[in-house]
Amino acid sequence: GALVGGVRASASGRCECAVNSDCAPTEYCNAITCDGSGTCTPMPSACSSGPGNIVACNGLIYDSICEEAAAGVRVGGELDPPSPF
Question: In a 3-state reduction of DSSP, which class is residue 76?
């Protein structure tokens, strides 16, 4: 991707990443799995509450996937307890 001030720009498309530091300060490295490459994704600035049972890749439980993303944590975790569906 294009370099803007030494940081890869993602305006022309999402950049691949391995860790959050590969992305812009307002983005995090998101993927559907906890390891491996992902894409730089903008962190949300505000979230509504959720079911409160989402275990993130860092092992912590968040109220919603949005709150995980706002914390810069990959969404590849699971529900605790598991979803009945």
Answer: coil
Q: Where are the extended beta strands (E) located within 1-85? A: 3-4, 7-8, 16-17, 27-30, 38-42, 54-55, 61-62, 78-79
pTM for this predicted structure: 0.68
Contacts of 54 (CB under 8 A, 6+ apart): 61, 62, 63, 64, 65, 68, 77, 78, 79, 80
How confident is the model over 22-59, as pLDDT tens digits? 999 999 999 888 888 999 999 999 998 787 788 888 88
Rounded to 5 degrees, what are φ and ψ at 45? -95, -20
Residues 52, 67: Cα–Cα separation, whole Å: 10
- 29: exposed, middle or buried (C-beta count within 10 Å: 0-12, 13-18, 19+)? buried
